[in-house]
Amino acid sequence: MPAPSENRLSPPPLTLRSLPAWIGIAFGWTLARWPWWLARRAGVALGWLMRVTMIARGRVARRNLALCFPERDAAAREALWRASFRSLGISVFEFLRAWWGPLPPLDDGVEILGLEHLRAAQAGGRGVIMVSPHLTTLEISVRLLSRAVALAGMYRPHESPALEWAVKRGRLRYTLAMYTRDELRPSLRHLKNGGVLWFAPDQETRRGESVFVPFFGQPAWSLTSTHQLARLSGAAVLSLYYERLPDGRYRIEIGPALADFPGTDAIADTARIMALMEQLIRRAPEQYLWVHDRFKRQPGVTSAP
Predict the structure, then answer these.
(1) How confident is the model at residue 262 (pLDDT cuts 50, 70, 90)?
(2) What is the pLDDT of residues 92-109, one digit of tens each?
(3) pTM of the entire structure?
(4) Interior CA angle at 188 toward 184 and 193, to 5°?
């Protein structure tokens, strides 16, 4: 099913203002074609560089880890903080590879578990919503999964027209469509037609209907979109988990359909989804995107515009 915004896939014009973005895209396209053994080593080095230069984001990650893992001592949290930057560096090359590069050898030995849950949920032509956390293997895992599952995705568009065009064009190599959060009607149509829609609902965003629910024991401003989409479309909701294994292979796991979802209470349903996201993150916490300021907005505190 084509996305309604696919007619915007003509490349934007090259201007002086967009020149840096186009140079970055060309550089990224080149990196996406590096031999993977070299790209992975470069990713480890990049992770170290990001750790020592991204001071503000490093503080955010440390604060998040302190809030989410109070049961761990300072040394354990520091080790997790360092490991998360290593994973973040590797993920840069995984993202580039997913968008613009060849898949081999990243598809060697990939495990895809739980396809039976997806097939059961699709019985009778029912649509399926798959939700996952922002683990750093997100993009490459969805590309790997797309070999077995035809799916569309929801995403936040880039502010740069050049980058938006290049990334969306890359994603449409392995998805049926990519919908923005404003494209509610076409995403509902996709689900009502029996399609699979994937998105990651675990980040704070200024747009969309959100509520405060617990996330790692902390109040977190969280999108109610899973509840709303399931209620309006009648789709089943399944979890999607992915991780980079120690030997470099990837494991992707689809969970069973959530029972009695959606309910009548958007807040309760959103809390249930965030608890599910937390459960998945705890399986490989070093691969989560801790540099995102997840707890920036708090109850009773007005956030900066």
Answers:
(1) very high
(2) 999 999 999 999 999 999
(3) 0.93
(4) 155
DSSP string, the chain: ---TTGGG-SPPPP-TTTHHHHHHHHHHHHHTTS-HHHHHHHHHHHHHHHHHH-HHHHHHHHHHHHHH-TTS-HHHHHHHHHHHHHHHHHHHHHHHHHHHS--TTTTTT-EEE-HHHHHHHTGGG--EEEE---BTTHHHHHHHHTTT---EEEEPPPSSHHHHHHHHHHHTTTSS-EEETT-HHHHHHHHHTT-EEEE---S--SSS-EEEEEETTEEEEEE-HHHHHHHHH--EEEEEEEEE-TTS-EEEEEPPPPTT-S-S-HHHHHHHHHHHHHHHHTTSGGGB-TTS-TTSS-TT-PPP-
User: Who's near 10: CB < 8 A, 6+ residues apart?
Assistant: 165
Instruction: Give CA–CA dist 234/64, Å, rounded.
Output: 35
Are residues 16 and 165 in contact, defined by beta-carbon separation less than 8 angstroms?
no
Whether the per-residue pLDDT at 126 is higher than 70: the answer is: yes
> Can you tell me which residue has the tokens 């903080």?
81
Q: CB of 239 within 8 A of CB of 131?
A: yes
Question: What distance separates the 2 farthest-apart alpha carbons in the chain?
Answer: 54
- Measured between alpha carbons, how far is 65 from 75 in angstroms, rounded to an integer? 12
User: Tokens representing 101?
Assistant: 């590069």
* Rounded CA separation 234/214 (Å): 26
pLDDT at residue 204 in the model: 87
**Per-domain residue ranges of the chain:** 16-287
Average pLDDT, the chain: 94
The type of residue at 282 is: R
Percentage with pLDDT > 90 across the chain: 90
Give pLDDT tens digits for 27-81: 999 999 999 999 999 999 999 999 999 999 999 999 999 999 999 999 999 999 9
